[in-house]
């Protein structure tokens, strides 16, 4: 499906692991030293900041529920991430995380809880004018559950077929997507 024309009435929802930073296979980012931006992600976030009215991150962080990371530890990683993107003109308006282990938790993607929370915090968010970018089908289902346009980044699932009913578009990386809407 053709990319919509973006203006500042649009909201960007971003998954984190495998999209903004390299996903750690069979593990978690537990401190800043383990956080590595995907190639060009900082530049991409600078482009998004100029295009989108709101930018939020929705990230499942089961490692908290498992006791591997504290909420304060996650916040420290995010504070450093935001500091690292600021020199590129990047901004993220709010970061939502789901700490729960239970796959059926209402906040855990693909359930829509984090999106609904974002809309409560920013009532001007219109899901029909929102794009969800992620690297799993759970992210794509989350976007579709809320009526968003979905963009798939094949960082960890390169063999997933495309076209696909849950994916409206597909880009090699966050930066490739950013350049497409620049
Ligand atoms: Mg991910």
TrEMBL record:
Locations listed in the record: Cytoplasm
InterPro entries: HAD-like_sf, HAD-SF_hydro_IIIA, HAD_sf, Heptose_bisP_phosphatase, Histidinol-phos
Domain of life: Bacteria
Pfam families (UniProt xref): Hydrolase_like (PF13242)
Bilayer-spanning residue ranges: none
Keywords, alphabetical: Carbohydrate metabolism, Cytoplasm, Hydrolase, Metal-binding
Alphabetical list of NCBIfam families matching this protein: HAD-SF-IIIA, Histidinol-ppas
Name of protein: D,D-heptose 1,7-bisphosphate phosphatase
Species assigned in the record: Chitinophaga parva
């Amino acid at each position: 499906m053709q990319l919509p024309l973006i203006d500042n009435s649009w909201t960007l929802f971003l998954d984190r692991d495998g999209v903004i930073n390299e996903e750690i296979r069979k593990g978690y980012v537990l401190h800043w030293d383990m956080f590595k931006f995907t190639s060009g992600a900082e530049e991409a976030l600078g482009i998004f900041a100029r295009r989108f009215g709101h930018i939020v991150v929705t990230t499942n962080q089961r490692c908290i529920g498992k006791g591997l990371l504290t909420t304060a530890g996650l916040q420290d990683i995010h504070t450093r991430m935001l500091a690292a993107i600021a020199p590129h003109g990047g901004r993220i308006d709010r970061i939502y995380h789901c700490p729960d282990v239970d796959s059926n938790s209402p906040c855990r993607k693909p359930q829509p809880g984090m999106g609904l929370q974002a809309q409560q915090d920013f009532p001007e968010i219109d899901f029909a004018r929102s794009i969800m970018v992620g690297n799993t089908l759970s992210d794509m289902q989350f976007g579709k559950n809320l009526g968003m346009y979905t963009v798939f980044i094949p960082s960890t699932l390169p063999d997933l077929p495309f076209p696909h009913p849950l994916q409206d578009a597909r880009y090699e990386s966050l930066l490739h997507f950013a350049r497409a809407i620049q």
